[in-house]
Structures
1.
Amino acid sequence: MLKGTLLVAGTTSDAGKSVVTAGICRWLARRGVRVAPFKAQNMSLNSYVTADGAEIGRAQVAQAQAAGVEPAADMNPILLKPGSERRSQVVVLGRPLAEVDAMEYGAYKDHLRTVALESLNRLRAAYDVVICEGAGSPAEINLRKGDIANMGLARAADIPVIVVGDIDRGGVFASLYGTVALLDAGDQALISGFLINKFRGAAELLEPGLDMLRQLTGRPVHGVLPWLDGLWMDLEDSLALDNRRGMGPPTVAEPPDPGALPGPGTSSGSGVPESLRVVVVRYPRISNFTDVDALAAEPGVVVRFVTSPGDAAEIREADLVVLPGSRATVTDLEWLRRTGLASALLDRRGPILGICGGYQMLARSIRDDVESGAGRVDGLGLLPATVEFVRDKTLSRPVGEAYGHRVAAYEIHHGIVSVDGGAELLRDGGVERFLDGCRVGVVWGTTWHGIMENDDFRRAFLADVAFVTGRRFVPAAGVSFAALRERQLDALGDLIERHADTEALLALIENGAPEGLPVLPPGGVG
């Protein structure tokens, strides 16, 4: 029986560590291996709530789904959620521990290293294989002393490491060589090989470089993974949004059966399909923007992220504007006003959906002595609600109903939203209840994340948006977002199975790093 651990590191953020980890998990799961993902420390504003109420990174949730197992806090024991350029909330085993700056964080490192290793040991005991994902790059030598996610973890737990490089960025050979060379001899002894990711072009042109890299480092390239258009997975942070400013539907590596994903709806009169244009405001501390992935998956819906004053016209003209979650509601609201995008929102006569932090911004007033310390500030005033931030974080998996359909969701927030006037206003004041929030006219607000992943609800909501905007759009019946995600994860498993040296990966998992790997000068910092 296969038993062991592997760590997937990367030359940079967004090199493809999350995708490769998910792909290896799916490939192993299809072989009947009991496998779990693990990321000791994750910095991300995209998070999720497990069944037992723990908050972990969305990427580890997707990797758990790839492995066919239930997400758990041990899979991401330390989650850092930046609230500003210098301060982050530290979430440990799914619960907030402290708000710290970069210097204060050092005081927690010994404790957090113990937490991470204990989580890894529990996973190793419960599963046959654990596939670990590193964070950033292992060659961030200024951070090596306190590292608990890359080589610090690998050294403490004796884990072989493969390094993923993104060839689409350019300079992949220098990045791979330099990553190894900057490490000390003990770290280098665990760097067991490389994977090149996002390759497009003629493979024969790459071969000489692969041979030279092998000669220079004494380490093999365990595969060249091709660029796949439309390859998509729950993102870890907003860096990857730079490549997704305009989002069509996520697709899979191989086109699905045309009968499985019907095309855009049409008007029964004209037969002419019409797209529904959705604009998502990308503020500086945007969180859980994965909420709109299911919208982009709907045929005929075009999703676009906007972030600059020049995008005000798009906000005014879109069929639907989404204000997503925010890790810094008051600060991001001030940014909306400073950029002029708030004025564009107030000028709109069309639908607006606020989710969590976005819902809070739509309220009349916000009292925040917790997140920003700003005290009372005015909201946009588009919904008759008041927000008060409290120190205890709400983490739950609620279930409700809207448009006659069941809605399963999750919530992560410090801000408590109350409808002004309460039940009386909801009954007699022209305000409708919407999940845990409210609706006034064409403005909706809820603290629930993940609502658009409920297929029947999503179609009913989009049909309502189309009706109030007068668009000739009918959501396509039969589109399953869960099935789409499964096909994406299968595509990642196929990527590993078809393009990686799977025998070499199995050997590393079972036997650990090969002995006698050469040490590259200058031998780096450890």
2.
Amino acid sequence: MKVDPSPGITIIHGPNGSGKSTIADGIRTALAGSTKWWTSAEQKSSRSKTEPLWEKIHAARDAEKTMAEVTLSRAAEKLTLSCLIGTDGEVTSHEARWTRPDGDVVSVDLRETSWSHALAGHPPVFAYADIERRVQQSKDLREYIENLLAFGGCFVVLNDRVVDLSEKAASAKKCIDDAVRDAKRKITEIDETNGRLHPAISIEAVSWPTWIADLDAWLEENQLNESGSILPQVTDRHAEILSAALERTEKAFHSIDAVPDSVKHRLANSLRGFHQHVLDLELPGTECPVCDSEKADWPLRLRKSVSELEDLEPQHREAESSLSELKRALDREFQQVVSVLISSAAPIVTSQELLDRAQDRVDRLCQVLERYGCQPTGMARKMVLELRSVLETRDWWRACVEAASLSALDKQWRLKRRAAIEEFIKVWRENVEIANEHQLWRATSTSLKDLASYLRDKRAEDFTTLAGGRVKALLDDAGIILEDVRLTTQRAEVKVQNPAGQPLSLSMLSAGQRNAFLLAPLLATIESGPFGFLVLDDPVHAFDDIRVDRLAAVLAEIAAKRRVLVFTHDERLKAHLMARSLTCQSWAISRDLETGVISLESTDELWRMLLDDAEAIRSLAPKASVNGYLSESQIIRGLLRQAIDLALHQSVVRSALSGGRDVVEDLNLLDSCQSTVARFNKAEEIIVVWDGEKHPVREARFRCGVYLTTWNNAVHGAPTTKNDLKSEIDVARKACADLTSW
């Protein structure tokens, strides 16, 4: 359905059930992207026992999905709004495509624009049944009026935004507060544990302000800015233990060296081990495993040799013991020193080359001890000497001192504290920016309420004047006057008077008066909105004849600046609108009862009605009147001129729509011409047709060009002769058809 976007009235009329509300609801749904009211009215659950019996289902019959699409235009721009609706009648998606003046088409997220505010503040679609069903209480009327003030919807969005940001800030602050409590608990446990283990050490307690504004400054203040893994404790004893183990091992080897040297002595440990293996054998045999000779007593001779070595036993046991002690010191003290140095987060003075060389010596000694046991073998002695050449140096002593410094108890204590608050630090950094706004948003919420209260009172005064004027236009004959409108955060207080000045309650209004009262505020504020159109669905519900005419007068006034679409079954409204507006189009609507398909058909256009009136005057007044202000021929020719002008107007609109031009701009060019001939010339310039096609304006001029000046003069009362008026009416009818049927 294409609608003439120029100012004027479009009437869609048809019987009940023909689909008028379907189209109106489709327009509203496509604009809003929701089947709900313009504001965020709650939708009751379908399972609820309070579900409205007459609630609409916005879905096509037996369809899995329904689409509603509306295209709006402004000069060379277009905005196409489309939404998909599921079988339950709820919108599943809403899209907006903007055709820019340069022809590019881009998608628009309407949620990031003021679109919803515009719809709520200036609803371009009015359906009496919808409004009457939803405005049942004073709070509903307040919401309805506040939105018409371009206030309610805007402040609902603002308030929701502030509440959302305030809740996010409060949530972020709570996260930090919870993390602080957990960090306090952990640090308390660490302090109590370390205090018991190391009573001689005392460090300052962590200070916890009400709110930590600068985390890095707070960490530095409490010596918590250094992080790292918890290191083993290294003291001076580590170097002393290593040195003592090395010295003891060296002495043990010297004791063995002091005994007279012999092969048997050097093999003492091996002989003792060999003898132990022989004792474990049940049948050692008579063949000596050393010389392969048959000596049945070789086990006895071996035992004798071993017993002769008993004088060396203390020295060997000492050597074994010292090597075992050295291995334990290397596994524990040495590795702890190295671990502290290589795990330090801060740069260390000890060279990596020293650490690598020491670790290599230790690994080689440990491999020998693992392979042969802690025996004072020559290989073991060699490895000990090489290790001592590294560990008995000033560089290694400095390394031990540095490790002790890095792993000091108070330092480890603070590292444990830091490790305990890592989660708090993470939470603080993630949330502090939003949490810092907590107080700001609370103050903003208060300020917003104050501003809303001020604007509500200020705008209500202006609204009372505007709405009162429309109420007077619609209900003046009944003496009903809108005296005052007061809005609070919870309700609307409306004061209405009867002709005697007595107060009336809204419940005392008739159905028609109530409809007029609800329609008046919308009609009072529509001109301040951004929409160049207004859609009214059944606006004359329960109206009497005078109410219909008064509404038609108001709509004709509004239609002077915007397009008004009226869906009605009431023939009275159609007749009154067509009588009051020269720029009026009429469509008949019908619905196929079996398929549900809705059809629209253009009914008599106004130029046809004017020509029919001209024919009626010609046939009913065959004799010239001598008493009339205008003669019958002047009236008829004036009607012909008006008909031609309306058809010309329609042709320009159709050309602009098909060519994607600005309708208002083209019509302004047309209306800038005063005479009919000049308007024909301008229309011929404006309207562009394809090569080979007939130009509608030239065709119409060819038919009636000789009459244009005569018809134009007749409108201004110029004398005219009767001649063949029937022929002129026929020519005008064909010329109008040329202009509107291309």
3.
Amino acid sequence: MLLGIFLVALLPRLYSAQTVGWHWYGQGSFTPINFDEANTCRMWLKAAREYSPLVGAQTVSINTILGHPPPANAEGNYNVAKAYCLSGPHMLVARSFSAFLGAATVVLTCLIAFTLSPHTPRVAWTAGLLLALSGFHATQSHMATVDVAMTFYIYLFILSAMLAVSNRKALPMMLCLLLMLPAIFAKKVWPFPLLALLAFLPASTWRSFLGNMSNKHFAGVVGAALIMAAFAFNTGFQSLGWYPLLGLFYLAVPWRKIPLCTAPLYLAIPWVAWGIAQTDIAFLKSFTTGYLNGKFGSGFGAIGWNKLDRNLLNLPVLLIVGLGLPAALLIPRGVVQMIRDQRNVRLWLCLLPILAWTAYMLLIAPKTTYRHYLPLIPATALLAAQGYWSLKWAHNKLLLAAFFLWPALLLIDFELDFHQDTRRQAVHWYQQHAGAKVFHTFYASPPPFHRPSPVLFKEEYAMGDASVLRQGDYLVLSENWYETAQAQELNGFRVTNLERLVKTTPERAALYRQILAGRHPDLTLVQDYTVSNFMPELVLHKVYYGTFQKFVGDLKIYRISK
């Protein structure tokens, strides 16, 4: 059964990993889908920054064993390293490696479910199959980024922690500590796995910290601390300077129930939040508040107060699209089942890293790119499975079939986005317009055979008298770039204030809105390649938030007036 569910997960992931992007512009050509693909390879070759080299070290080693080592001068050489990392042989290995780890994560999810509920194997098979059929997890698994690998290492560590907490012997404990390292370093530094170690604390230690607090009191304190952090790490709140309001956290602490020796810890929490909000340390700033300015104009901190409603909306949207509406609706029932499971409290505590990441993405995260939510999908698939089998009519065969048919159709819809990529559809247009001078935005990825070579568009070309723009014949806009002017997962749904848009400037956002509305005097829409979906989750997302696949989007081609 585990082998079977592994293959169900692997086949669509591996097929897309080895076909998407290949041969678009001629036999043997390769076009990367996600511009972050293989960055971990370049980091390993010391030709990139801000990425973990762990996965790159593995893919480069496998590629070397297969007879394709990096050039001798690749280390530290950006152009050579990039050419090698994005070459066909390495990308085939890197994507296949990602697909394999994605399928292996499905097996880990089954094993974790077995550990929690050994007498109800149907929960494990349901959780595994839900993850195997997750279109979001599947499509991330056929891209050579670190997100799927990070998710695999996190759940491998969580499983090892569960085994260690169940069997307090030296070998399981040592294995758990060893597997914690890739979980932390697979993507930059991800400290949340350390929270799983709380499951090993004796009850006396917990009691000395919590005192006589009930579970409800403790949940209230944690919730109050998170809400306080959500405000403290918000640039809108910081601009007002209302830091004394952070002291309202103290009202949530049941002071008479906590030990006197731990009172200073609770007293320090608002002060620590204030201190982090004041610091300009890059690591803390980028993971809490975000900067007001960035290399694309505004930084992630520019969203201001809109950050609160954006984050609160993004999490349920991601879970609905990631698992399918029926499974997502059952997650709350799964949470209830988890709370009721008093026999396995320590095992559930091993999942604290995922709970902490959920709270972080819900209230604090300045950057909310969808793939950053990927570690939540296996755990929520497990909760959805728990929720499904708590239904009194769960054994109904028609209901069970429909429950799995829905995510299967959603998986097909997800995959069709990649196999019918609009950039691939546009090849014929380029062939028909050979000799035309073309401007293009990022992510439009024009074919290399087009002559004269397309020129990267700068928004300034179309501003003012647009004299530079009128030197060309056509402008190709990619949704993945102009979406910065629209409602999407980084901007949220309140985008009337151009000052609060992320990764753009008010002038650029206004320009793209003008172009998309057909009001630019020098541009006329002549061709529109559109991503089409049939499942309601993706259709509704496109209507209100744009195409869900942020590296596969609409292409709009405009004729430039002379």
